[in-house]
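Give me the fold.
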Amino acid sequence: MVKIKDVYNFQCKVFEPDTSELSEKELKKMLKQLYDYFPYIYTDKDEGNKEPYSTDNDYSKKWYKCYDHLLNLLSMRKQESRYKLSLTLSIVAIVISVIGVAVRVNFFVS
């Protein structure tokens, strides 16, 4: 069973400034670790032995804030990689266009 102290230390780590610099792979690893801390209670019901805490519980609120924060960081990483790809493709297209113009100018001059 996870200790509350570990959960609170993890929650502090999620909101550290260094966390925003982690790679997408490291953020996904943190998200999987957060799933281990999901707020639930054991029940004696027939459907299963776990039931989530109510969302108005303080622990649940903190868990969902961490979850949202990690998802936002992952989303930003994905947008950043798309932006870099788009920028790279744009630069390659400009270089190809310049080379094409230079070849045409050189062909017509000769």
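The two ends are 79 Å apart (CA to CA).
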